[in-house]
UniProtKB/TrEMBL annotation:
It comes from Amycolatopsis sulphurea. It comes from the Bacteria. The keyword Membrane applies. The chain crosses the membrane at residues 20-42, 54-78, 125-146, 152-169, 239-262, 274-294. Pfam families: ABC_membrane, ABC_tran. Residues 21-289 form the ABC transmembrane type-1 domain. One of its GO terms (molecular function) is ATP hydrolysis activity. This is ATP-binding cassette subfamily B protein. Residues 318-549 form the ABC transporter domain. Keywords: ATP-binding, Membrane, Nucleotide-binding, Transmembrane, Transmembrane helix. It is a multi-pass membrane protein.
Length: 550
């Protein structure tokens, strides 16, 4: 959904038209009651002072008050529903786009979370903000008209204060727009850093770098402070100026009304009504915080639009032909990770990827799995470019597991079958293969134990993730260090039962590389050598890879 922030906000406003119309009608009822109240109060006051029958006047006053209270009560609930529905709609659109962008998304995880949560909630409230601004504008305009019906001189005195009120509002909007956008962007940076730090909490604690990491994550705080300070300074200036404007206008109108009373044009009740109209007329100034909210809403919409305007990779539409699971990279380049990598892994073979940290092993696996596309070159499965294959066929043909899998699903069985139509027999078979079945059947409810209540160690979680990759019976199995947390005996037993499918495993263990049909040695984003472990072991640089890892 490409477009400007204002176009997005327009779509949000019109998302639930029946409820929006209801909110507008109820707001107009509240506004009408508010405008009639000062006149009703004036009539009741004059009736009391004149010794007339006050019953009708008091009943009318009470009816107006009750109508305003009832309308305000409804206006608490309906706008909240509008905001909730719109926020949910926006979150769905942004989440869908982020998922479509996949691992190649330009938005850091923490920043993406900030856009899905805070920005969608803020932009989702645009209808409620606009309705309040419209009702306040109608209230202020109506108050000026009613003030003029009392005495046109009072209206002129009041109107003299409006240019200053408009100048204040315009100055406030211009002063906050830049600070609001800066504040939200820096908040996204902070969210991204915090999410990274939480994900790497064990590493940070083990390396004793907590203080350095805290300094890194909190580095944007001074910019956040400056943006927040700018917002609050602008707000403070507006508050005290608006606070002076209302009593000044009231004193001026009250003075003019006093002369009206002396001249016999106005009654005491009319004076009370005039003060009420002045307060209502300057109600827009009292709603200046709404202008800040509107500015934040537009900034949030701009950040949401940045996500929605980012085009995801095109979906392929070719069917995957029969094959043995042969994998190939042709001149594959990923900026900052790989440079013109050429690699062929025959179907049904067992390939081990080795290399020092940062050599590009995980990136190669991601390319072979179709989780990301090369910036240049091709990744192929059985001669077909992965970018041209139908996503559902690619996902069915490739199994992928990592060292620290995210287990999704309500129960253990659902976590293993996640993303596939596998039934209970297939789930059990996959768990037996990965040597996790005996652990799972001892859980309180076996495979039906809620995943949130399942105490799994790192190695056990890795085996559940590996079972999830196996349960769909993939043509190709890609393991990005998925066996690293297993002991060598379990690792050997598990990898021996993975079948004759194509297996590509990132490993740091020489024993695993020795069992592979071929070893791909990566160094600085390039393929240094490909061959049997015994042959590569003669090279000092190859032996050093395992020495460094150890």
């Amino acid at each position: 959904m490409a477009g400007s922030p204002d176009r997005l906000l327009r779509s949000v406003v019109l998302l639930d038209r029946p409820r929006l119309v209801t909110v507008l009608v109820v707001s107009l009822i509240s506004t009408a009651a508010g405008l009639l109240l000062p006149g009703a109060l004036a009539t009741a006051t004059d009736a009391v002072l004149g010794g007339h029958d006050v019953a009708a006047a008091v009943l009318w006053l009470l009816a107006l008050g009750a109508a305003e209270v009832a309308a305000d009560a409804v206006n608490v609930l309906l706008p909240a529903q509008l905001t909730g529905n719109a926020s949910a709609w926006l979150r769905r659109k942004v989440t869908d786009r982020l998922l479509a962008l996949g691992v190649g998304s330009p938005f850091a995880p923490g920043d993406a979370v900030s856009r899905v949560t805070g920005d969608c909630a803020m932009a989702g409230g645009v209808a409620a903000v606009l309705v309040r601004l419209i009702s306040t504008g109608v209230l202020s305009s109506g108050a000026v008209v009613l003030l003029a019906t009392l005495d046109w001189r009072l209206a002129l005195v009041f109107l003299a204060s409006l240019p200053l009120a408009m100048l204040l509002a315009r100055s406030h909007l211009r002063g906050t727009a830049k600070d609001v956008l800066s504040y939200q962007r820096v908040s996204g940076e902070l969210g991204a850093g915090l999410l990274d730090a939480v994900a790497g909490l064990r590493t940070i604690a083990a390396s004793g770098t907590a203080d350095a990491e805290a300094d890194r994550v909190l580095r944007p705080l001074p910019r956040l402070h400056l943006a927040g300070l700018g917002m609050w300074r602008t707000q403070a200036r507006m508050v005290w100026r608006a606070g002076l404007l209302l009593p000044t206008a009231e004193v001026a109108v009250l003075t003019a009304a006093g002369f009206g009373v002396l001249a016999g044009r106005l009654t005491v009740g009319d004076v009370l009504a005039a003060l009420g109209y002045v307060s209502l007329g300057l109600g827009l100034v009292g709603q200046i915080p709404l202008l800040t909210s509107l500015s934040r809403t537009r900034s949030s919409a701009r950040r949401i639009t940045e996500v929605l305007d980012t085009e995801p990779p095109s979906r392929g539409n070719l069917a995957l032909p029969e094959g043995t699971g042969a994998l190939e990279l042709r001149g594959a380049t990923v900026r900052g990770a790989l440079t013109e990598v050429d690699l062929t892994i025959p179907g049904g073979s067992f390939a081990a990827l080795v290399g020092s940290s940062g050599s590009g092993k995980s990136t190669v696996v991601a390319l072979l799995a179709g989780l990301r596309r090369p910036d240049a070159g091709q990744a192929l499965l059985d001669g077909c470019d992965l970018a041209e294959l139908r996503p559902e066929e690619l996902r069915a043909a490739t199994g992928y597991a990592t060292a620290e899998p995210m287990l999704l699903g309500a129960t253990v069985a659902e976590a293993v079958a996640y993303g596939s139509p596998a039934g209970a027999p297939a789930v059990t078979a996959a768990c037996r293969t990965t040597r996790i079945h005996d652990v799972l059947v001892r859980l309180p409810h076996g495979y039906h134990t809620p995943i949130a209540e399942t105490p799994l160690s790192g190695g056990e979680s890795a085996r559940v993730g590996l079972a999830r990759a196996l349960v769909r019976e993939p043509r190709v199995l890609l393991l990005d260090d998925a066996t690293a947390s297993l002991d060598t005996v379990t690792e050997r037993a598990v990898t021996a039962d993975l079948g004759d499918r194509t297996r590509v495993i990132v490993t740091h263990r020489a024993a695993m590389a020795a069992r592979a049909d071929l070893v791909v040695w990566l160094e600085a984003g390039r393929v240094r050598a490909v061959g049997p472990h015994e042959q590569l072991w003669q090279l000092p640089g190859y032996r050093a890879v395992f020495t460094e890892e150890a």
